Amino acid sequence: MTRIDRYIGNSVLWGFLIVAVVLLGLDFALTLIEQIKKVNDSYTIQSLLQVILFRLPGKFAEYIPVASLIGTLTGLGTLAATSELTVMRAAGMPIWRIGFAACQPILFVSLMGMGISEFVAPAAEQKANLIEKFKGQESGTFSLTGGVWLKAENSFVYIDAADDTGKLYNLQIFSPDGQQLKYIKTAASAQHIKDSVWQLNNVKETIFADDHIETKSLPSAEWTVSIKPEHLFLASQEPDSLSLSQLHSYQSYLNQQKLDGSQYELEFWITALRPVASLALVLVALSSVFGPLRSSTMGSRIFTGVIIGLAFQNALNLFGRMSVAIDFPPVIGVSIPITICFLAGIILVRRRG
């Protein structure tokens, strides 16, 4: 049985890899076509290609569930087309054993995808944001992304970018006095000194007095604000560019501050439950191969897999976003389509077996 299990697993794994390469290739081509209009003298075609390539690890991790579904359909479908599955069933091999063999490579790939999401994709995504934001200006010492508003004490702060050491770039600090604006400070950068003290660099300050406006420039100035550097870095990132540990850390911080962290919690559970979603879709594929797609062509299997994959992804986004909108635990919203796939797969496999 071990040799047969390995044979089935290899068929599914090769199917997965082929589908993953095709999906990544399509994503690369479509993104290149969509983003080519941004190319100019400073943001060159080489910079655009770097941005797309740096984002491929994250895309691979996202495509694992859908690629698992279509890869299982094509891998097992090939065995069904050559009657090898029929011979296995005639020899007394139960469907659950075939499913177990098919799940093994998918589980391995899913766990590998978790590692990519935790250690590889966030750094690559942030490097891509660096190149895209600063139009090809490269730096090996930090990774940037940006555009975030924060309320710090009585001021409103806009941070264009932040790196993983807590250094801030292109700040604007708006300080109101009641209904009136008291002053605006802009700084090219800021770094944390100690405790709640930051140093602003290349500062321009505009003061709004009752009868005049005063502007002055300073090479540096102190800024006292009780925000930790690591939280500023996480706040400046998009939730889908963060690792699981970063998502959990920042979502916990937001909850402690009694702020809304549902977007980060939603992204956490989408990433954390990705291996479970992949196994659920493998069950659906297994039931289809032994059911309505048993004697269909490869094109029909791929088309069916694409339709089921799109329906699953849309349901995942729908229930996830709905859970955030109605203030419901995101883990339940993400679990609903996964549970439906699991139940449907198990019921259909039992009927076929």
TrEMBL record:
Keywords annotated in UniProt: Cell membrane, Membrane, Transmembrane, Transmembrane helix
Family matches, as InterPro entries: LptG, LptG/LptF_permease
Record's subcellular location: Cell membrane
Keyword Membrane among record annotations: yes
Cited function: Part of the ABC transporter complex LptBFG involved in the translocation of lipopolysaccharide (LPS) from the inner membrane to the outer membrane.
PANTHER family: LIPOPOLYSACCHARIDE EXPORT SYSTEM PERMEASE PROTEIN LPTG (PTHR33529:SF2), SLR0882 PROTEIN-RELATED (PTHR33529)
Subunit note: Component of the lipopolysaccharide transport and assembly complex. The LptBFG transporter is composed of two ATP-binding proteins (LptB) and two transmembrane proteins (LptF and LptG).
Protein name: Lipopolysaccharide export system permease protein
